[in-house]
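Dear colleagues,

I hope this message finds you well. In preparation for our joint manuscript, I am sending the Aldo/keto reductase (Candidatus Avisuccinivibrio stercorigallinarum) sequence together with its predicted structure, so that both groups work from identical material. I would be grateful if you could confirm receipt.
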Amino acid sequence: MEYTTLSNGLRLPLVGFGVFQVPDAAQCEAAVLTALENGYRLIDTAENYLNEEAVGSAVKKSGLPRSEVFITTKLWIDHYGEQKSVDAVHRALERMGTDYIDLILLHQSLGDYYSAWRGLTRLYREGVVKAIGVSNFYPERLTDLCMHAAIRPMVNQIECHPYFQRQTDLECAQHFGVQLEAWGPFAEGGRGIFTDPVLTKIAAAHGKSTAQVMLRWAVQRRVIVLPKSVHADRIKVNIDIFDFALTDAEMQQIAALDTGHTEIIDHLNWHTTEFLNNIKGRQD
Ligand code: NAP
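The corresponding structure tokens are as follows:
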């Protein structure tokens, strides 16, 4: 495993494990346990994934000391507000059966996120959360928040993969000392990315899979990746990326695959804004 250090000194593995779209508790718990057994130490959930309980339970069952596992969760928009966000984080702690969260993110750059940010800042100062960050913040919103916040976000988690590379987002994040995390590192399998000819050729040259090449490419850009899988063989393969390196020429060939637009969700479309604002966060 390779690590990166956040602006507050916290060390994070560059490969984590995502559990979006795994609402079944038994399946989620089994997947997280398999991940932990295979060396993953960063688990990425959210209140809206409906599996924080399963994540908490898997961490306990793994037998690993709590301090060795880095848990991220995210707050939904309707829990934004200074006190509301504090209360929502306490509910998440209860669901996960833990007394602190390693990283809490504002899931979307919508609603009253400035108040929510003040709430997270309070929790950070109290030590209830070890790091605070945001998700789906495009550069202009990230810049604005960084310029007005008492404490800057330590992380921004965004869609990022070879077809949507977010170079400007990366430069903006680096400018403000924010670590980028890539969600959807495989574009959720969209547009035939697993059989892309450029990625396939590079993978063959290293005796690796296209999935491993995509993850390795991100890690070489110093972007944290959060691949999701419910299959043990894929969970194992997705962390086995530290025994090879892409050459500069290969990094450039992958850079040329960027389309500059999302494969999954267009946050800059007002229909998306309406859609996301209509989703309710967990009430329990
Ligand atoms: P993803 O990781 O890009 O893709 C997951 C898909 O790839 C699944 O269908 C999985 O299938 C398949 N897969 C995984 N490993 C594979 C391999 N080695 N070979 C072939 N197929 C493979 O998509 P994602 O789950 O959307 O993103 C990853 C994580 O990012 C999420 O789980 C979540 O934690 C986070 N996320 C955050 C946001 C946000 O708004 N902040 C949004 C989306 C995701 P199987 O499971 O069947 O193996």
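For the figure legend, we might mention the following. The longest helix spans residues 82-96. The mean pLDDT is 98.

With kind regards,
E.M.
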